[in-house]
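Q: My collaborator sent me two sequences in one message, no labels, and asked for predicted structures for both. Can we handle them in order? The first one she listed is below.
A: Yes, handling them in the order given. First sequence, followed by its structure tokens:
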Amino acid sequence: MKLPRRNFLHLAAGAAALPAVSRIARAQAYPIRNVRIIVPYTAGGPSDAIARLLAQKLTEALGEHFIVENRPGAGGSTGTVAVANAAPDGYTLLVAAPDFPLQPILKAKPPYDAVKQFTPITLTASMAEMIAVNPSVPAKNLQELIAVLRANPGRHQYASPGVGTPLHLIGEFIYKIKYKVDVIHVPFPGAAQSLTSTIAGHTSILHGSAFSIMPQAKDGRLRAIVVTSGKRSTFAPDVPTLAEAGVPDFTSDYISIVMAPAGTPKPIVVDLLNAEIVKTLKLPDVKERLAALRLEPVGSAPDELAARIKSETEKWSKLVREANIKVE
């Protein structure tokens, strides 16, 4: 039987549309294969722990494997550049820490643009950064420490996990710019070495995280004198903030963020990942595991993280100019 021309055209159009609809549906499905989460640091640190926790929960929630890949090197730039250059399809993600906006500021040839080359997904968690002293230092608060340094120019040292890290730059601001005292910076290749040095008394002062300092402070091997965050830490409620210690114009804390390459689709990928990660951060077992690392869950919207990165970039840029810090 011959179909009327109008009916034939209608059916033909419908048949042609089905593959197109199917293609659109497939394009909008995410994820449909493994997703890489690149951590630009060695395994074992807070960012690595957060990435592995998120990978487990996202795998369970979305049905595809989220796989953590550690890509350390060049102060975190190696792994970060790999993500910046990846396809913006949601299958390569970055879990980064506070030095994310710092590398482009510190280096003569910026390895990446923290604002233009990435799509923010969420700020996952934060942790207080702290200043502590060896118990031999006769200071119980920041003002007493400054008095000790002023009375003994050039005789004390502060340890940090490396030149150009936020914990180093905090020292440049407090000691050189704010109080103009003579103290020596001793950079180490990591947090563990700077912690060991200060416990042993080889360095007088330690700039570190609540995760590394608080267990030692509770055992009496270090004395925590100030947190550099904007608020007191849940895990160190008796330790005052910089503002409470007389430095109201500067804050810094450890933050862990999730980013994707610039151009990653917002409604299909970014919004989905943001919703799943924020939901994950509210789970009791996740909160418990973060607490063991002295991390406080956050879970921000993508635009909130974008604003935070912009403000952090401006803050560190100003400090690096004032302190004339350069990293080759």
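Q: And the one she listed second?
A: Here it is, processed independently of the first:
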Amino acid sequence: MAHMPYLPNLASPDKATMQASRHSLREEVRRCDELGIDYLVAHLGSHLGKGVMAGVKNVSDAVNQALALSEGPTTVLLENMAGQKNSVGSRVEELKLILERVKKANRVAVCLDSCHLFASGFDLSNEEAVKQSMGVFEDSVSLESVKVVHLNDSKGSVGSNLDRHENIGKGKIGTKGMKAFLHYRDVGQRPLIMETPYGDVKGMKKSIALVRTLLS
């Protein structure tokens, strides 16, 4: 798995930014194809006030352009966003629209970020909340479309639109919510990547051990 650089803005209506962002995506897909990398995670960016549908079109066009030049194995994963102003992909309906517009449907899927999901308004703090939130998610995007999970707790409250990751169990989702999320259907069986603040090996090992406990 690889992750797109953060600077490209695939949803941008600005011509220069759009061209540079699409070039970056094409190059990343090409590199991943050559290396045999299964997944390339992409942030979708901001429509800069031009409207969600403009952003949806720009993202889907960018993915279509990149995949049209690709004969390799790499699948582009659309990462859900936290709901920052003008962002594209924080609403599940937006992810659905992009998935539907990509011509090579077998080469596009979703990377589900738990912090972003929580910050965008999907409560994950307990078992009942997880069932309701994930049910709403699945009304638009099937769980089978989720190939990878970014497992992060949240410094911000539910619906805060803050993209601020916290160590597992130390944020507003908490251990109870994280356990329920991991045990919702087969979420916990997917590749799990933590993008949490621990900066030392000891802290990372502690966090991994906690997740394994929650999984069991």
